[in-house]
Amino acid sequence: MTHEEQRRYLIRVLLSEDTQYQGIVIPEDAQGQKDLLRALMNVRPPMPVGEDFLTVQDEYLSTERDMTGVVDIHTLPSLRCDERLVLWQGDITTLNADAIVNAANSGMRGCFRALHSCIDNIVHSKSGIQLRLCCDELMNRQGHEEPTGQAKIPPAFNLPSRYVLHTVGPIIEGRVTQRDRELLASCYRSCLELAAKNSLESIAFCCISTGVFHFPNQEAAEIAVKTVTGFLQTPSSIQKVIFNVFKDTDKQIYQRLLGPNTTVEAAR
Prior knowledge:
Strand content: 5-15%
Helix content: 40-55%
Shape: globular
Structural class: alpha/beta
Strand order of the largest sheet: 3-4-2-5-6-1-7
Oligomer: single chain
Largest sheet: 7 strands, mixed
Number of strands: 7
């Protein structure tokens, strides 16, 4: 199959899974097809799927990944304050770190809103439906929602990283409490501990709990830097920690926190 044929095949299979999709016409343009495929993947519940579908999906997503480009973390310049630290602005799903961190919800199964722009949605869209199935299995075995401040470490499947650390950050409603601060610090610490437990050497953090979770960006960054640098004072397998920012606001905050001479490597 060509790349477009793979995309059309995946859409047809997903449309056939639910009678409510009858009558939906596959768009002729590539972007319309990509949006429809992603939307169908976003809302699909964690249920079994055939091996033929997974084979085609993996080939399709691997090609999409290569077309977007993979960022080699070993080419990113370290900070002067600590050679183990990197500040990078761009799409975290393009990094080939041993693990990237996903700001998940307590259900841990991804964002079920079609084409939502949150990191949880984008991570699951690019990883493939196996990630939701894997997380569903983990959560069914656990028997309850994931507590705030904790983390899980499923494989990354079709992402360039090896694992996606899912962590649940605190949701701020009103003023930030000391408990909120402790839980956010626990998110960073839990991810680092899980990475070290699995002998990983590199980890990339997104800005956990900011955005729709409403943790103030400045205070969240302060907690992130303090927790990470504190963890690095003890021996572990972790050799590189990437502070990944997407917005210019967060880039400027981290630059101020990490030193006046801090440079930011940006995605090209």
